[in-house]
Amino acid sequence: MANPVLNLSELNGSNGFVINGIDARDYSGGGSSAGDINGDGFDDLIIGAVRADPNGQNSAGESYVVFGSSSGFGAQFNLSSLNGSNGFVINGIDEDDFSGYSVSSAGDINGDGIDDLIIGASGADPNGQYDAGESYVVFGSSSGFDAQFNLSSLNGSNGFVINGIDEDDGSGISVSSAGDINGDGIDDLIIGAGDADPNGQNSAGESYVVFGSSSGFGAQFNLSSLNGSNGFVINGIDRFDFSGISVSSAGDINGDSFDDLIIGAYRASPNGQNNAGSSYVVFGSNSGFGASFNLSSLNGSNGFVINGIDADDRSGSSVSSAGDINGDGFDDLIIGEFHYEFYDRAVAGKSYVVFGSSSGFSAQLNLLSLNGSNGFVINGINDGDYSGRSVSSAGDINSDGFDDLIIGASRADRNSQRYVGQSYVIFGRSSGFGAGFNLSSLNGSEGFVINGIDAFDYSGGSVSNAGDINGDGFDDLIIGAVRADPNGQNSAGESYVVFGFASPTPTNKPPVAVHDTATTDEDTAVNIQFLANDSNFLTVTAINGRTVVVGTAITLSSGALLTLNADGRLTYNPNAQFESLAVGESGTDSFTYTINNGSLVNTASVNLTINGVNDAPQIISGFNLSSLNGSNGFVINGIDETDDGSGSSVSNAGDINGDGIDDLIIGAKDDSPNGQSLAGSSYVVFGSNSGFGASFNLSSLNGSNGFVINGIDADDRSGSSVSSAGDINGDGIDELIIGAYRASPNGQYAAGSSYVVFGSNSGFGASFNLSSLNGSNGFVINGIDERDGSGRSVSGAGDINGDGFDDLIIGAYGASPNGQNNAGSSYVVFGSNSGFSAQLNLSSLNGSNGFVINGIDAGDRSGRSVSSAGDINGDGFDDLIIGAVFADPNGQDRAGSSYVVFGSSSGFSAQLNLSSLNGSNGFVINGVDRFDLSGISVSGAGDINGDGFDDLIIGAASGFFDGQFFAGSSYVVFGSSSGFSAQLNLSSLNGSNGFVINTGSFVSSAGDINGDGFDDLIIGAPDAGAGSSYVVFGSSSGFSAQLNLSSLNGSNGFVINGIDAGDRSGSSVSSAGDINGDGFDDLIGIGALRVDPNGNGWFSVGSSYVVFGFQTVATTNEDTAVNILARNILRRYTDAEGNTLTISDFTNPTNGTLTLNDNATPDNPSDDFFIYTPNANFNGTDSFNFTVTDGNGGNITSTFNLNVKPVNDAPIAVNDRLTTGFNTPVTILTS
C-alpha cells in the first residue's frame, strides 16, 4: 500500500525532485510529458513559463525541456542550469505573446520516429491579427539541441509556426497531441481557440486539428488553410460557449482503433443550465473529414456531447484522456469541474470519469447519469479547493497494470496556510467504482494525496503524466505551482516530479443508498432520519456532493439550510426561502446525500414537501428583483437577437433633457449597431413622474421616452463605461460621457475614444450616432497610443479646478507613461463655456484645458477605474480617485492601490505623476494582501457618516488567479479636514477613519435611498448565485471597523437578490438619481449582463433593474404642514405572499397633529397621504407609530421620524399704554 500522503517538501531525488523557475513572476509550472524529444530512450518534460521575458521581450514567455535520464536527479533542479546536455530553453518571440501558456507532447507529427513538441502562445499577433494566437511545433531530434532555442528560428526543417486566424481568437490557449485521428499512421495535433467566432457566434470557440505528415511542413502554417486534407476546423455551437478552452486526445474511447478527441466548452449552457459546461467527444475515422466540423452535428455515430449538470458548474474547464482506469480495454475520459457550486461558495470541485465502451454512445450523455457502470463522479474535499482545476491520466504510477488518474486542487489549504494546493492520485482497478468517490477517503490503498509546500503556491494548478523520466520502468508525474517562490524569486514558479513505484492495491465494494422523503411547514425545521433505511455502519460524508462533518450547515440551491447532526440525522431548515407560499400552497425541495463505507461511496436523494402559511409584513432586509412591479421599481430589458450585454455599465445620466427629472444611461458594449459588429451602443432612459410599468424594453425607445446612442466602428465597444458628465459646457443642462476603449482613433489600434454628448431641452430623436458629433452637439476625445484603452473607465470629475464648470476624467489603463509599460494614465478634461471642437486629442492636454495623471510602475494598470471623489478634504474643491488594480504596495503582489488627487484653483501642470502625491496634493491608498486587486472599482461615497465631508469607497476583488475572483472586500475611507498623510493603508481602517465591508467588487454611492438625510452605498457581488447587490445605509451613529453584509437587516441596509443563476446581477451598480420624481434617490445597476429577459434563447441580452427609494423621515419648517405619501413609506416593506399592504392604524405625534387623507379615492389606498402639522412654534424632532397590514391578519408596527427645522420669525409690534405724572419722565423699554 502506498503512503496516504506525500508532501512535496519531502522530495529528495530518490522519490522525485523539484524544478525551480528562474526569475520573479515568470510563472513557470505548466508542465507535461514531452515524449522522447531527443531520441535517447528516456521520456522528457516540457514546462511553460508564460510571463518570462526572453531577449528583453516582456511576457513573450519561455518553455523549458528537461531531458530524462537514468543517472538520477538531485532534490533540486534549476531551470537556469539548462545547457543543451540536460535540456534547453525555448524562447518566445514578441512582447505579450504568452508562449508556454499551454505545452504538450505533439507525438511524432512528421513521422521521423522522434517525438515532437507543441507550444501555445495565445497572445501572439500573426499576420497583424491582434491576439489571434500562435502555436509552435518543435521537431524532436537525436542530433542534440543548443542551450537556447528561439521560436523565431523555426523554418520548416526544425519545426513550424501555426498561425491563428482572426483578432482575439486566442488560438493556442490549449494545445495537445490528437493521437492519430485519421488513421494514417502519423500523429496529429489539436489546438483550441476559445474566443473564436464560428458561424457568427461570438466566442463560441473553435478547435483546429492539424494532420501529421511525413511530407514536411513549411515554416508557416495558417489555420485558415485547413481544407480537410491537411486538417479541419471544429466549430463551437453557441455564443460564449468558449469551446476549445481545453482540448486533448481522448485515446480510443469507442474501441474502433482510431484515436478520438475531447473538447471542453466550460461556458456552454446545456439543458437550460447557464454555464453548466459541456464537453464534446469527436470520434476518429479513416473515412476523412471535411474542412469544417460543427459540434452541433454530433449524433452518437460521429461523437457525442457530455453535458454538465447545474448552472455555473463549468464542466469542461479541463479535459483529458484517463487511460484505461477500469481495465476493460477501452480508454476512458476525465472532465474537471472546478467551479462546482461556486455560487453557493462551495467550489470544492468535482471531476467526472466517463468509461469507454464498444457498445456505442447516445448523442447526449448527462454527467448526472453517471452511476458506476458508465463512469463516476469524484468529489472534492473542502470549500474553495477547486479540485478539478486540472485533470490528467497519471499513467500507471503504481505499476499494477491499471492506468491511474491525477487531479489538481490549486486552492486547497493546509495547516491554516491558504492556497498551498493539493493533488490527488486515484489508482485504477478492475473491481469497479461506485457512482461517487470522495477524495477525502484516499488512504494509500486506493490512491494518495500530494500536498503543496507554501501558502499561495497554488500547486496542482497543472498536473500531468510525465512518462518515465528516470527510466526505472514506472510512470512518473509532474505537478505545477506557478506562484511558488524558488530561490527567493517571487512567483518564479516550481514544478514537482513524483516518481512512480510498485504497490499492490486492495479492492472494496461500494455501499448502497436509499431514497427518502419528508414534509414540513415553510417556517418549521424538520429532522430527517434516513440511515436506518440503509445501514447502521455507514456515515454521511457529503450533501449535494459537498463534504460535510457534524455541525456543517449546507446552503442548498433553494436557499434552505441542511445540518448534519451527531446522531446521524439531518436537520432541514426552510430558512425563509418559501415565504411566498400562501396558505394551501406547497413547494418542493430536494438534495442528495452520500454515504461512505470507509472508502467507497454511493448517493441517494431526499425529496421534501414544504407547506405554506401566512406571514406578517416585514421591513425589507432582502429584496428580490423578481418582485419589481412598477410601484417599487422596474426592469429594463435588453433587445432580442443582439446578445448586446446591456447592463454591463450603468449610471445616473443627470438631467440630459432638461425636464427637471434625472435620467439613466445603460451601456451595451457588445451590441452591433448599423451592421458594425461589437461597435457597442448606449441607451438613455428619460426619467418621468408619470410612473413606469413593471418592465421597460429598450427596443421601445422612441425619442420621447429616451434614445439609443450608436457606436461607430466594429469592435469599438462603446458603452464599456458610461457616466453623467455633469454640465461641462455651462449651458445649464447635464451631459453624458461614453467610453469605447477598443476604438482606434488616428490609426492607433485600440487607443480608445470617449464621446461627450451634450444635453438639450430641444429633444432627441430615437437614435443618435456618435459619428455625428460635431462640436455643437458633443465631441470626441481621442486616445493617444496603440492599446492604451482610453475610455475603459469614464466619469464626471465634478469641478476639480474651481472655475464653475464640471470637468471629466478618462482612464487609459493600458497607457505606458514614462516608459513604464501598462502603468496606465488618466486624463482630466476641463469644462468650458467657450465651446469644443468636434475632436479633442488627449495628447493636446497642456494644463490649461486639462492634464494627464501618470501611473507609476509597469503593469499597475492605473485608470482601470476612475471617479469623482466629491470633496474629501473639505477645501471646497472636488477631488478625484483613480484605481490601479495591479499595483504592488508594500511588496504585496497585485494588492492594488488607489490614488486621491485633490482639486485646486491654483492650476495644474500638463503632467501629474502619481508618484508625487505627498499628502498636500493628494494621497495613496494601499491594498492589503496579495491578489486583493483593490481599486478594481472606485467611487465617491457621498457623506455616509454625516460629518459634512465626502467619503470614498474602494472595491477589492480579493484575489485573482487563473481568471477567478473571490468574494471581495470593499473599503470606505472617511473624508476629513484634518489632512491626510501621503500613504493610507487600508489595513489601518478602524471605524474612526473608515471601515471594511466583507464583500464586493463593484461599488458606488447610492445617493440617499431611504430619505434619512445620509448618503448610502451600493455594492455589487455578481459571483453569488444569480448575483446580489447590497445597500448599506449611511448613519451619524458611527461604524465599527468591520461590517459583515450578512448583518444587513433592513434597519442598516438590505440585500437585493438577482433572479436566475448565472445572471450576474450586480455586475454594475450606481445611483439613478431621482428618476421617478418623488424626491427620493433611486438605484440602478444591479445590471445583469447575462440575462435572456424575453426567453428567446439569447444568452447575454442583459437587463438592468431600477429600485425606487423610499421614505423613513420627513422634514418641514416650523409652523409648516408637510404631506407624506403612504406609498413612499410602504416601499420599505415586503409581504412574502405578495399581499397588498396598507397602513391600518397610526398614533398622533407628540408635538403635532396627523391625519390620513384618502385623496377622495377610498378604494385606492395607493394614493393615500398623511398630513403632519407641527404645533405652533415647535421645532425639533417628532415621530408617530403606524401599523402595516397585509389584509390576512399579518401586521407590523413601525416608527416614522419627523424633523421640524426652526425658522427666524418676524418681529411683532404691540400697542401699549403708559401712565405717568405731569412733567414726570418715563422709561419705555424696547425689548
Word description of this protein:
Keywords: Glycoprotein, Hydrolase, Repeat, Signal. One of its GO terms (molecular function) is hydrolase activity. This is FG-GAP repeat protein. InterPro entries: Cadherin_5, FG-GAP, Int_alpha_beta-p, Integrin_alpha, Integrin_alpha_N, VCBS_dom. Pfam families: Big_9, Cadherin_5, FG-GAP. The chain has 1231 residues and is mainly beta. It folds into 4 domains: 494 residues, Integrin alpha, N-terminal (Methylamine Dehydrogenase, Chain H, 7 Propeller); 98 residues, Immunoglobulins (Immunoglobulin-like, Sandwich), CATH 2.60.40.10; 231 residues, Methylamine Dehydrogenase, Chain H (7 Propeller), CATH 2.130.10.130; 93 residues, Immunoglobulins (Immunoglobulin-like, Sandwich), CATH 2.60.40. The protein contains 1 helix and 90 strands. Strands 23, 24, 25, 27, 31, 36, 38, 39, 43 and 44 form a 10-stranded mixed β-sheet that branches. The protein has a 5-stranded mixed β-sheet with strand order 1-32-30-29-28, with no helix packed on it. It has a 5-stranded mixed β-sheet with strand order 6-2-35-34-33, with no helix packed on it. The longest helix has 5 residues. The protein is globular and about 140 Å long. About 3% of the residues have low confidence.
Q: Which helices and strands, and how do they pair?
A:
Blueprint: E1 5-7, E2 16-20, E3 28-35, E4 44-49, E5 62-66, E6 76-78, E7 87-91, E8 99-107, E9 116-121, E10 134-138, E11 148-150, E12 159-163, E13 174-179, E14 188-193, E15 206-210, E16 220-222, E17 231-235, E18 243-251, E19 260-265, E20 278-282, E21 292-294, E22 303-307, E23 318-323, E24 332-337, E25 350-354, E26 364-366, E27 375-379, E28 387-395, E29 404-409, E30 422-426, E31 436-438, E32 447-451, E33 462-467, E34 476-481, E35 494-498, E36 516-521, E37 526-528, E38 539-543, E39 546-547, E40 553-555, E41 561-564, E42 570-573, E43 586-596, E44 600-611, E45 618-619, E46 622-624, E47 633-637, E48 649-652, E49 664-668, E50 681-685, E51 695-697, E52 706-710, E53 718-726, E54 735-740, E55 753-757, E56 767-769, E57 778-782, E58 790-798, E59 807-812, E60 825-829, E61 839-841, E62 850-854, E63 862-870, E64 879-884, E65 897-901, E66 911-913, E67 922-926, E68 934-942, E69 951-956, E70 960-961, E71 964-965, E72 969-973, E73 983-985, E74 994-997, E75 1002-1007, E76 1016-1021, E77 1028-1032, E78 1042-1043, E79 1053-1057, E80 1065-1073, ...
Parallel strand pairs: 1-32, 2-6, 7-11, 12-16, 17-21, 22-26, 27-31, 36-44, 46-79, 47-51, 52-56, 57-61, 62-66, 67-73, 74-78, 83-90
Antiparallel strand pairs: 2-35, 3-4, 4-5, 5-7, 8-9, 9-10, 10-12, 13-14, 14-15, 15-17, 18-19, 19-20, 20-22, 23-24, 24-25, 25-27, 28-29, 29-30, 30-32, 31-44, 33-34, 34-35, 37-42, 38-39, 38-43, 40-41, 41-42, 43-44, 45-85, 47-82, 48-49, 49-50, 50-52, 53-54, 54-55, 55-57, 58-59, 59-60, 60-62, 63-64, ...
